[in-house]
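ugh ok fine here u go
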Amino acid sequence: MKLYNSILFGFAFSPSLKVNILESTRIAYYLNCKLILLHVGEKTAEKSAKIDEIISETDYSDSFIEVIWKEGNPETVITKACLDLKIDLLILGALQHENKFQFYVGSIARKLTRKVNCSVLLLIKPAEKRVPCKHVVVNGLDAPETPLAIEHAFFISNLLGAQQITIVEEIHTKEIHVAVEDDRSLKKANIIKQRLRHREDSRVNNIVGTLPENITKGIKVKTQSIFGKRGYSIGHYAEVVRADLLVMNAPIKTSIWHRIFPHDIEYILSDLPTDLLIVRK
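structure:
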């Protein structure tokens, strides 16, 4: 089973360039993918030498690494490159908070997550030496693309050796339909919450049950129902449990989800709790 064949890392010459490239090559190695490094900007001898030097310091063979230089608008160039090069995963380096986002993150990242034809991985904590991935959190939102996001979470967890996956089911508080005013209404609200949790757990467990055993074996699976604002709740949860990776559905541009999901993911993009994988079919 292989979900990714080619990875594109869009880079700028920032202070974190080296660790981002080292992390990207490590990810490409574990996912057994070709890695393309793309810089939107002028190619100079100095820049080229710096990239070659960093590549020479990677722990893995540079035979699967290609460097491309293009000039133009970053958003347009990267979107077109993902399509033309048949990219499966776009990697972008990021800092954690919106007001400190690097070159491609912020408004450009928001546009890219909706425009590119592939999945997107935002890195906020790349490391020069490998830090094992132990805990992955994935959204269990009741949406058409959720089974794909859960499948990708297991696939990557299996390759990276993660020990636990938590599937977070974000439930709108309005589904309770009870105004808590006294002990009786509180009890009724708790009963409804328990039923909703059971419903969501059953739905998620059915999704996990359809996945190939070779990607689920050996991974501890936990379901977690959260009542609150979608996007914000799962981001806060991933931060509290110190998840190594958060996996989310890609924004959907059709029907009611187009009006709902962009607001959900804005909470994540404005304050990234950890590395974020946005899965697109």
